Amino acid sequence: MNELSKEEKRDFLAAYRCLLRCVGETALPEDKPKIKKYLEQAFAQNSYEKDIYGLNILIRTIHTALIVADEIGLKRPAILAVLLSHLAMKGSCTLSDIEKDFGADVAKIIKGLIKTHELYAKNAVVDNENFRTLLISFAEDVRVILIMIAERLYLMRIAKSIPNDEHRLQIAAEASYLYAPLSHKLGLYKIKSELEDLALKFQNREAYDFIKDKLNETKRSRDQYIAGFIAPVEEKLKALGLNFDIKGRTKSIHSIHNKLLKQKIEFEKIYDLFAIRIILDTPLEKEKAECWQVYSVVTDMYQPNPKRMKDWLSVPKSNGYESLHTTVMGPQGRWVEVQIRTKRMDEIAEKGLAAHWKYKGLKGESGLDDWLNNVREVLEHKDSSPTDLIDDFKMDLYDDEIFVFTPRGDLFKLPHNATVLDFAFAVHTRVGSQCVSAKINGKNVSIRHKLQSGDQVDIQTSTNQTPKQDWLNIVVTSKARVKIKQSLKEQSSKQVAIAKELLYRRFKNRKIEEDEAKLSRLIKKMGYKTVTDFYVAIANEQLDVNTVIDSYLEQEKKEQEVAEHTDRSVENYYAPTPVEEISKKEDVLVIDKNLTGIDYTLAKCCNPIYGDEIFGFVSSQGIKIHRLNCPNAPMMFKRYGYRIVKSRWAGKSGANYPVTLKVVGQDDIGIVTNITSIIAKENGMMLRSINVDSKDGLFQGSLTVLLSDTSVMDSLIKKIKAVKGVKQVSRY
User: Fold this and answer.
1) For residue 554, how many other CB atoms are within 10 A of its CB?
2) Staple partner for 198: which of 29, 154, 156, 445, CB 3.0–4.6 Å?
3) What is the pTM of this model?
4) Under 8 Å between Cβ of 302 and 336
5) With b meaning 16 or more CB within 10 Å and e meaning fewer, what string describes 297-335?
6) Beta-carbon contacts of residue 223 (< 8 Å; ≥ 6 apart)
């Protein structure tokens, strides 16, 4: 650590010791020497230069890791990812090196961090709300977002040491409307408040200082007031034998500033400046009962404001926040907000998702529980694709929620823009499948009607109703989509069976012997992509059975004439059938769980190759296979999620795929020669094209190579990176 000053060394070592304590038993014994080796290697390669703000990157990294561990509560994989991500970005080490030394989970998080940092580099000044959506879409692992929040919190804490005013204001602006809202969505309320306060400090120092000075002026009297308010409550709760802790606090400076602006009142007239938090230490099964018991004690002593009562025990917030809030009239006619919760609830309120993960197996009533269970499942199974998370849940965590009721008063939580049909499927699959309309507050509405919070919805059903294809365009919830697709498949199977039986009987009635191969050729000739489509058309009466048989006889006659003309017997006649064509692809891709034999094409926008994480997209030209990190993937998942089908590679076909690599290096003709020489020596690899541009002593080239899979591609990239003068190699 020769490049660090004495002060920086002290700072680093102190933070590092704290970090080791936070990681605790989750770290492996070999982690410490390996990390030390990576850091020493990075110093030798001068990878820790100052960042754009003039800050030492190593110090910034260690403090970000400490926030991730201590204040957010993430463990080994996330902490190691923070420590190593910069080294991977600078090329000091590779993802494969990291995966080998620290595991796939660490490498996966770093991959996500690299993506988000690349995205951020393209949008240096965050100036629109769409960036947040884009950021979330790129972050395939929730831990990536939590790490980015931690990084921003550290920047805000030391922003006063950043000499450039413009940089400081930019950091504060982004913290205010990007990172603080993200923290709120993820339940990191303490971090959210700190980000907001610090942002106000740099954006409006006059307003910040005014409120801070006012709070300092009134601190002694405020503390006395809070102590007087708490004393009788504390006495009563102790008499009831409850285990608890009471904290008094003042609202955040940012929150007070917002009240001053919105209510246009003087500081002295803010009626809920005080907040008291009562935290119970109680078993899970007694949580609700004891919280309400405390509520009863408080409201017996002090007059509550009925308009300011918030019950997040019965209906927790979407990010898992649980608490009971009320505002009561304290002594001297002053309003005081009282928050009642348990230790578990308080930890979730402080650390958000990370704390929620700690309580594994907990079946609370939070609308986030199911989502979190599936997040855990994706994160804990290394073979799981991030598609599982994005496809099934559409990042519902970030959507607003509405609350609607059945006629009996049962409450349902649904995402914003949910329709009558979504609600019907939320009630029960059978109710959804037979839904024809609804009555909302006594008024008839269609299944497309978008619901509002507070609606009382009475679903109208019919036994004759069945799910339709266009229903997929109406619903927004994953449950409804899954059930509709499942029902459509079942309907399709029944229709195929009925149509097959009908066609078979007509063949028999007309005394014609059916030949499966001939029928398959006819189906393809008639333009049907699958045999199922053909039979569904018959079942729906879009295709007449007699027309099919007439076409079959005509085709049979023509094939016989061709056979006689070429002096070939019918027995020896061969023509490829759809089944035979598909069988060539059967071992290459498996689409939508276990379906093979489906036509597909590889998307030109991202050129997937064997080994890439992929998904299928149902387009008007059939199923197109995209890479999971395709530039168009976020838009497709967000806008056309119902067209996404899960896909995976099943086995090699022996085919070669085109891959385009971007190479940046020193302007030297020898580099190009060395690169082409490497490709020429590789077995089964072919250079299709190479284009090179030169500017200011650097060359930027793109080369397209035909190769078999991602492991071959990674090996090639590694070899090209080793060429003297090459600065960067990346895949387009």
Assistant:
1) 11
2) 156
3) 0.51
4) yes
5) bbeeebebeeeeeeebbeebbbbbbbbbbbbbebeeeeb
6) 248
